[in-house]
Amino acid sequence: MKTFSKKLGKTLVNTSISLVVVTLLWVFSLWVFDVSPYIGKNPLDVFNFLFVKDEAAANRDLVLTALNQTLLDASIGFTVGITLASLIAVLFALSKGVEQALMPIAMLLRSVPLIAMTPIIILISGRGNVTIAVMGAIVVLFPALVNIVFGLRSVSPVMGDLVDVYGASKLKALRTVAIPSSLPAFFAAIKISVPGAITGALLVEWLATGSGIGYAIVSAIGRAKTSEVWAYVVVITVVSILLYNLVSLLEDYVLDKFGFAKAK
After folding, report:
1. If residue 135 lies in a helix (H) or strand (E), which one and from where to where?
2. CATH number of 94's domain
3. Of 114, 205, 255, 256, which is the most buried if we count CB atoms within 10 A?
4. pLDDT at 263
5. Per-residue pLDDT for 3 more than 90?
């Protein structure tokens, strides 16, 4: 319990530092580039928009409603993407032939700009959850797949030889040795995928669904609501930082349980 409390405290400190650094960069950039106050809003402007102005309650409701939709869309893309990446990585670990057949397809999905594929995806699957899942999965899939495959192949030579001596099948070796050994890489994949899923959700909202923060930002820009635009950007940035650090905390806890010594 004491160890977990210590890790929680460390996570809170790291989160606070990240938020402070982002805020300083925000203010510094506005000052260095001499951005017009009409276009570039500072932290105080966003705070006033969300908490001080007469319509602050309505503003918060507007932003939180869009945020909830974006988090839902991101969770769909993340779940589908990380699940597919895990299953494909297992297939790659079991069969080199499968890897040689499927890896070029994964690389193709990664290399073609998503914005170019969007019209085709919309024509095939419409503008609902299927499109959200497909586009989110495309963003998440390749980086997660590479990390998980690397993790499954990171078994120490000693453990590999021991499994061979006992005559374990590929599937049993994967289940008893490779998958536990891949946990650090799996969490690395999750930490990459969480902000990636949010980015994918924003993109699909802008291009396909017409909902959530992705669409709300474009709509607010069209109506010259710059304070609203900055509020959306700030909120989704803060949430992304919080989720990343939450995953880091979960990673520390799980790796400790499995006896991994995470690098400091």
Report:
1. helix 129-152
2. 1.10.3720.10
3. 205
4. 45
5. no
* SS3 state of residue 241: helix
Q: Both tokens of residue 220?
A: 């607010």
Ramachandran bin of 96, using left for φ above 0, alpha for ψ from -120 to 50, beta for the remaining angles: alpha
Judge whether 263 lies within some domain.
no
Q: How many domains does the chain have?
A: 1
The 10s digit of each residue's pLDDT in 223-261 is 999 999 999 999 999 999 999 999 999 999 899 888 775
Alpha-carbon gap, residue 11 to 253, rounded angstroms: 12
pTM (two decimals): 0.91
At residue 69's C-alpha, the angle toward residues 238 and 77, to 5°, is 85
Under 8 Å between Cβ of 235 and 67: yes
Nearest to 246 by CA among 194, 202, 186, 168: 194
**Contact between 63 and 231 (Cβ < 8 Å):** yes
Please report whether residue 262 resides in a domain.
no
Digit-coded pLDDT (tens) for 161-207: 667 666 666 787 788 888 888 999 999 999 999 999 999 999 999 99
Residue entry with tokens 């040795």: 177
Domain range for residue 80?
A: 2-257
